[in-house]
Amino acid sequence: MFSSFSIYQAAIDIQASILKQSRNLVLDVLAAGPIPRHVAFVMDGNRRYARKHQKRVQEGHSEGFIALRRMLEVCLRLNIRCVSAYAFSIENFKRSPEEVDALMELAEKKLLELCQHGDLLDQYGVRLNVVGRKQLLPERVQKAVERAESITRHNSKAILNICMPYTSRDEITTAVEASVQNSLKSQSKAKSDIVITEKDIDDNLMTSLGGSPPLDILVRTSGVKRLSDFMLWQCCEDTQIQYTDTYWPDFGIFDLIPIILDYQRKVWRQQSQTMSKA
Amino acid sequence: MFNLYSIFLHIIHRIYAIYLAFHTLWQWRQEQRTAAQPLVTPRHRLPKHLAVIFTASPNFSKESATSVIVQSVVNVVQWCRQLGVTKLTVYEEHGILTECEREIRARLTPPQTDCEVSEPEVEYHPLTPPPSEYSESRPLSPSHSPSLIPVTTILVSSPCKEREPSNGLRNRREGHENHVHNSLQLCLVSKNASKPAIATIATSLARNIVFKQRKGSRSGRQSSFTLRVDELESVLEGEDGLSSPDFMIVHSLDTETTSRRAPLELHAFPPWHIRLTEIFSSKIYKPFSSRRDSIPQPLEESKFCQALDEYASAEMRFGK
Predict the structure, then answer these.
(1) What value does the mean pLDDT of chain B take?
(2) Who contacts A144 (Cβ-Cβ below 8 Å, separation ≥6)?
(3) Is A120 buried (19+), middle (13-18) or exposed (0-12) by CB count in 10 A?
(4) I need a surface site. Which of A207, B240, B250, B288 has the fewest CB within 10 A?
(5) pTM for the whole thing?
(6) pLDDT at residue A18 above 90?
(7) Cα separation of A193 and B203, whole Å?
(8) Which residue of B has its CA nearest to A226?
């Protein structure tokens, strides 16, 4: 009655299930220690991954999206409350029109897929923020963004920031502009004594306006050792910057585990330093 | 269940610590074996503007950290001048560099004055420049705005060496190039030039608008304030002040023992200027030293060369 195929299929399913359970166990063990509040990923290396595997560039980006989903689930299971991902830079509009169009199409499709009922964001109560100069996106993508954001707006357990099209300098400039506008609107009489502080600018950053906590870890994949205009303001103080040679589509839980362990070591070290001073 | 998981977590951390110990050892052995290319090897690419961040844990006494930092700065200046790097920005979070600016200047002037060190152009920032300095037409006037960022600049140069002009024009031009090639602009920066400077600029922009509204100018009254990226860039970056480095070396005065291995952090370096900067983490691996005998480590030439090698091999795409 049982065909060999269905036995084979059952074996695969059991293996997948065991792997998933062990993955969840590892994540639950990690979650027993200090966990970062906000982790940012620079999803770099999609095109080089595609070239390495003799695939088209668009397929590299699709694999990149799958990696994003995978990492998002891992982070949510770890209780990381806020995840940011650098999807598209304002500078990336310089790429070939075919690639930009393909990326925009991917974005439109996947944004709506992510927000569907029963999908990842719904399951974990994640609010989606699309961070960046959205006016530069094509109309259709802007509409998809609005729809995706409105579907998840009521979620409050976690935040996902998709940064597209984003550059940090643009974000800082917008925050300075908003701080100045707010200070001018304020009703205080002594307007010549206006003082704008670091905190004012910080509060007006697009990530802060979306409710994101301070950035604890920034991960850059594909072996590149620069920030490329990503979260410069947020990461220049005491954010841990982690470089990894893995291309983004290959990035997985085993790449993330040492990063979390390093963070836990830092927190424990700081706690022991405070205790030894007290 | 929670306690059980905590126990497992501590076991994982022990395993990780052992792994890090091996990794530190391996990295130390790699460095012993493979020397970086010597300083003046022709490299595929050299940074025109180099930045160095010095970080020190609170374990060190201020005097020892200061003397090591000053020595390292002087060394880096010499190396940069040999390589033809034209601008060097040195950063230390807590302002040690500004405090020992005199000492650095003195150390950079050798006894026979064949090397000129200009009077440091210390640019301090008033909290707000007086409104009368502003021009009516533009909200930002780049001419005085760089003074809003506190940077100590020292120009290190050699005067023209008097060559016998045998071939007339050609030799004089060569002599001039030699002079320009060796001069270096050294900027000493601390945390004040970082986010607080951007806040100061925002404050002065706001007060400028208030001033214009008071004076009743047409441009000030009606339109709401807008700011473009290039406008803010022109205020924050200047040839004479702080500009964006091509390459940055983050040097930790601590030795990297297993217990203290930590990933890179930027210690509040000015955020605007590190958009496209390649970052190199300079750490001295000493797998067998204990926590007690901690002496601050200067930036050594071999590490500097290793950093330059890495910069030369970096791939740059600029968004494309």
Answers:
(1) 77
(2) A107, A108, A111, A112
(3) middle
(4) B288
(5) 0.86
(6) yes
(7) 9
(8) B278
Q: Which run of H or of E encompasses B287?
A: none
What gap in Å lies between CA B189 and CA B89, rounded to an integer? Answer: 7
Cα–Cα separations (whole angstroms), residue A243 to A78, A97, A149, B303: 21, 30, 31, 19
Which of B190, B223, B225, B230 is the mutation pick for testing A, counting most A CBs within 10 A? Answer: B225
Could you report the predicted ipTM of this complex, rounded to two decimals? Answer: 0.88
Q: For an interface test with A, give the residue of B211, B237, B273, B274 to mutate (most A CBs within 10 A).
A: B274
pLDDT at B184 over 60: yes
How far is it, in rounded angstroms, from Cα A21 to Cα A15?
10
Write the DSSP assignment of B244-300 as a string of letters: --SEEEEEEEEEE-GGG---B--TT--GGGGSS-EEEEEEEE-TT--SSS--PPPPP
Alpha carbons A131 and A89: distance in angstroms, whole number: 11
Asked if the model's pLDDT at residue B118 lies above 70, the reply is no
Q: In B, which residues are within 8 Å of A183 by CB distance? A: 206
- The residue written with tokens 């530190």 in the block is B24
Q: Is the pLDDT of residue B170 over 50?
A: no
Dihedral through CA A215, CA A219, CA A220, CA A223, nearest 10? 150
Main-chain phi, psi angles of A137, to 5 degrees? -80, 155
